[in-house]
Design a protein that fits this description.
Strand order of the largest sheet: 1-4-2-3
Distance between the termini: 51 Å
Mean pLDDT: 86
Low-confidence stretches: none
Strand content: 5-15%
Number of helices: 9
Shape: globular
Number of strands: 6
Length: 225
């Protein structure tokens, strides 16, 4: 059966529109992008996007209720929105990588000279991409695990941005040993590895772990390390 006229062009038009918007964001200053993203994050919080889950996490891990919990959750949404929009300004006229400052660069360089292959494990909060930027300069070769986005166009463009920071992206796919083998071989050769340990995996690719004293599910890679 023949496809409806114009049906095949809709995904192409959507992909073109997405790329155009993201390229437009690249021309913004990092600070402007962060303010815009923060506002969008607060809007998502007010609309209740996954707010029940976020409230439960804050209550269980920080024992906060009422207005105190609302302030923390609102700030978390604002931070996530700011980080996401800011990501697209990397490599632009005033990307965030131009403003990264290391509190003690000599200490970090000395650690990498003494231990060339390091595994950095952190939580999925804050500007983790800029954290990786602060590491990549001394790490030489720096591999990072990331979970593939549902939108393949956005996923490819996100990883291009991360590569601009000096990061090589490994995908946390269930049952895929290629990424782990690549990571081990690279670390034996002196590369470092970055892991965000608390990203929630899919239903059939998770292993139990403890996070802030609470039972949680994570990918097998971060669990192993």
């Amino acid at each position: 059966m023949a496809a409806a006229p114009g049906a095949a062009t809709i995904p192409g038009m959507r992909s073109w529109l997405q790329r155009s918007i993201l390229r437009g964001l690249n021309r913004l200053c990092a600070d402007t992008a962060a303010r815009l993203g923060g506002s969008l994050g607060v809007l998502a919080w007010r609309l209740g996007v996954r707010r029940t889950v976020a409230n439960q996490v804050i209550a269980r891990t920080l024992a906060l209720r009422g207005p105190a919990r609302a302030r923390v959750t609102r700030r978390a949404y604002a931070t996530m929105g700011a980080n996401f929009v800011e990501l697209w300004t990397i490599g632009g006229p005033d990307g965030p990588e131009r403003h990264v400052q290391r509190a003690n660069p000599r200490w970090q360089a000395a650690i990498h000279r003494r231990h060339p292959a390091l595994a950095y494990v952190g939580p999925h909060i804050g500007s983790w991409d800029m954290g990786a930027c602060g590491i990549a300069g001394n790490a030489g070769r720096f591999l990072v695990y990331a979970k593939a986005q549902h939108n393949p166009v956005v996923d490819r463009l996100i990883n291009i941005q991360r590569e601009r920071l000096g990061c090589e992206v490994l995908f946390a796919d269930h049952g895929d040993r290629a990424g782990a083998v690549t990571a081990f071989r690279a670390m034996r050769a002196g590369a470092s590895l970055g892991l965000i340990a608390d990203q929630r995996p899919g239903e059939h690719e998770s292993v139990p772990a403890l996070f802030l004293g609470q039972p949680a599910q994570c990918h097998q890679g971060p669990k192993f390390f």
